[in-house]
Input
Amino acid sequence: MSAVAAGPLAGKRILVAKPGLDGHDAGAKVIALALRDAGAEVIYTGLRKSPEFIVRVALDEDVAAVGLSILSGSHQELSREVLEGLRAAGAGDIPVFVGGTIPPQDRAALVAAGVKGVFTNDTPLEQMIDELARVLA
Amino acid sequence: MSTATPSGIEVPVVATHEMAHEPEAPGAYPFTRGIFADGYRGRPWTIRQYSGFGSAEESNQRYRFLLEQGQTGLSVALDLPTQCGYDPDHAMARPEVGKVGVSLFSLSEMETLFAGIDLGAISTSFTINGTAAIIYAMYLAAADKQGVPRAKLTGTIQNDILKEYVARGTWIFPVRPSMRLIADSVLYANEVTPRFNAISIAGAHVRDAGCTAVEEMAYTLANGLAYVDELLRRGGDLAKFARRLSFFFYVHMDLFEEACKFRAGRRLWARLLRERYGVTDERALHFRFGVVCGGSSLVAAQPYNNIVRVAIENLAAVLGGAQSIFTCAYDEAFQIPTEFSAEIALRTQQIVQHESGVAATVDPLGGSYYVEWLTDRMEGAMREVMGEIDAYGGVVQAIEDGWLQRRIAVRAKERKDATDRGERVVVGQNRYRREAQADSYGEVFRLDPGTAARVLEKHSAVKRKRDAARAARALDALESAAAAEQENLMPLLVECCHAYATVGEMVERLKRCWGEFQEPVRL
Output
């Protein structure tokens, strides 16, 4: 990773995480590569992490945002646990984004629970980067 | 219009006879035109829809419905805790119990799953890998309970751990002990259930993760050769076990590239076995494969269009000579299918099988200048990719280092970028999308919210009621055999299942001996 990065997310440290048991990591890796191309410093957790672990990494690494990738249908429970964990640790201000196989009718509930944005595989990467840049500005 | 296939092969405006060679007859080496001389006339492909969710009771009902509707084989989807080796009461399992498949934590659930279904009369496929040997043992124990002779059992366990490290992610143990478990189950199956496929070497998931059709086949055949080497190292008889190796692939939208992928792969596998190992037994050279349509080729935008996509993919699989096919439901781009969408997927296959007429003549594309040319080109490209893996040091090394995983991630990014730029056209998503498109998604699938609680209740009841001493003895015996290395673990796993030991308990004992896989995260 280059020390001096340029791009809309330059200088931002972002955690890309795979909570739960879902093993589909193509999306998470594509996002991680896109964020890095946009200048961010990306930390990718690898598969099968508990919400507690993800919260701890977010705090230890002092990240600007957390992206959760979930394709198992457990997006409601797992996102909520990460959000609650961050709040309990006094880090409720770290924005959390969710991506994966998210049925359209579930999006509103995720946002209501505190998720800052929901991205699925038809979201253009540029649009996702723009939205992150706006939230993290 | 693109002038290259999705694998990047530039195609001619018109193919002519000097570009193509006359293929051999169907049923003859190297089997370009199929493994049977009479194609689908002798045996039509198996219609095998993947399903399973919630508790064993709920899935049992869905299976009975599908069998009544004319489905000819069952394909069991398991929930992630069962796939990853956790009991439903484990902290990691909690939100996932019964979600993407059925929970089979012990023999009790396998018995319930097949209640009223004669295991001697159906063929069952389990998409199971990390815990495949355990689920296979459980299936044998369930057959024992039904009084069905083990030798009568037909079906498949996926049992392909190598691609789990690369793409699907349900690994548990490190690569080398996992290879032992696979060899144990394949060698045991050869003796005990000679009509059962103890491994289905799968390319579907690496394809889903982003690689091309050529790479899908090349990586899968490379994995296949790694299993052959392992089985030989364990003293297996190649002529015998090669007859029971089966394969499983994805089919995407490029009709000819997909049909030719299967033709090229079938020929290349036969040639590799002959060239590298000197196999001459015809049946051992047979490349038998199942196909799944859809997955990442399905689109959430304007989802009813997926019905058309699936029909084209179904056709490509048939023209490629698949032995079994699973057609996705149109709503799988965003949810578990409903009974309504699952029925359309099933009917799609029945329309192709009974109305389209494509199954009447063997390999009807054979001899087409374009098809024979593309088949040759794809075989060449597959050999090149396999050569790159060999040059790296083989597929096991490439996986342990994360080299293959990184290659696929980069390919997935390229595919995403091409879609975002509109070079890869996705109708309804990045082309012909209406302004303010309000997509109609049809019926919503909702899992019964009480499922997880019921599964947990059954789990504690099983542990309470079983013969605790027998379960403990069986688990102890498993652990010491796993530590010893020489012994085939299958009989011990079958005894654990009969003793109602749980999947989580068996996996825990094996972890004590072997540890867990450490995922190389390289981006």
User: Anything to note?
Assistant: Residues 2 and 41 of chain A are 9 Å apart (CA to CA). The first strand of chain A starts at residue 13 and ends at 17. The domain at 13-136 of chain A is CATH 3.40.50.280 (Rossmann fold). The radius of gyration of chain A is 14 Å.
